[in-house]
Give the backbone structure.
Amino acid sequence: MKKNIFIFLPDGVGLRNFALTAFKSIGENNNYDITYWNNTPFSISEKLGFKEVKIEDTSLHPFTTVYTRARKRMELNFFDKKFKETVYNTYNFPHSYKGIKNAFKSLMVDTLTTFGSNQKGIDFVRNKIKKLERSTPKYQYCRKQLETHKPDFVFCTNQRPTQAIAPILAAQDLGIPTGTFIFSWDNLPKATTLVETDYYFVWSEHMKKEVLMYCPYVKENQVFVTGTPQFESHFDNSLLQTKEEFYKSHNLDISKEYICYSGDDIVTSPLDQFYLEDLAVSVRELNSQGYSLGIIYRKCPVDFTDRYEAVLEKYKDVIVSIDPLWSPVGQSWNEIMPTKEDFALQANVCEHTAFVGNIASSMVFDFAAHDKSCLFFDYEQPQLKKGIRDIGQNYKYIHFRSKPSEEAALWVRNKADLTGIVKDIIDGKLSSVNEGKKWFDIIVGTKPTQASENIWKSFNEILRK
């Protein structure tokens, strides 16, 4: 008899890994009946033809966001004390005190954080969040759906949304085993694990150690190291075009060698457009010396700003913009949905460019999968002023300590050095490929093509218990 698996999408983040890859077909080949338990505005049944159960009630308890915000701050404070650090609190972003409602909530968060940044306080808040969400209409709504459809396992595709708490609690209260996937390489030290499940699925042994380090309520036998479907497409040669096909489809100049500039969101890199401009200036300079170079600008899919437009216009002789093939179904960052076509586009951009430049992006791993270097920009822009976040902070984060050496990426720490560094990469004198692949193995794992298969094998193991 087929086991019924609910693939729970609390937001759009999990769509890329678990609806647009081979993940579903692998599960069906393993004799599973798969239903997408869908909390997003994206219609799985209409767009993809997959079986889904829609969660129409997206209400939260009014105080859940207060306690979840407090939990994150309390945990980050506690990590600083426990591990004798000062870096964890830099993962925080400032409160808003504008308006009576925002001020009241922020003051509540401040009070809880001041008095509760210890294990006892954190445990109190964790339990309070569960109590609040169990009292909501959404909890009862999700519980009835589960009673109707009787899944054997609920797999949450993203561990951080508040929207996931009530559905997971409903499953647990009905005795249905639950699991969650840690979706990004920086999530655990950031204290973003809001969803507490029976099992945790992680990319690598490195990430398993992080789960046990930052989530003391998790035991080792609850953690499965599987890899992530996120990088599987980079190893699928059927997605790759020839250089000539790729250049023709995007109106590129076949005589040029292109560099990819991967744009960042405005929070991570508020002055990102000026680093793209610096690269464009260097490319123009090198072209005046006899090189034939261009830049492919791939914007961050969840960047809604027009801050790059002036740079793209000014340097249109060297920059070509190739936008990600993502589709908005709402206004917030987690309602911008990837498409299957973007897997191929991203793989071809990696394959047919010389290297990638960016600010602290995980694109370092996408390019490592194609044996390409990554150049991180790490200098201040003259436009930096009070109230604008310095991008240098990104490289001090805990997740950047995972690199095997500084040579796991290339670094430009002085704007005056940029042209020379680009020249040396193009000439083959500088490379981060070898150390970058070691970093890839640490974070992504050594078997990146087997992630989907490994997750289903883990489901088998859990359901045999």
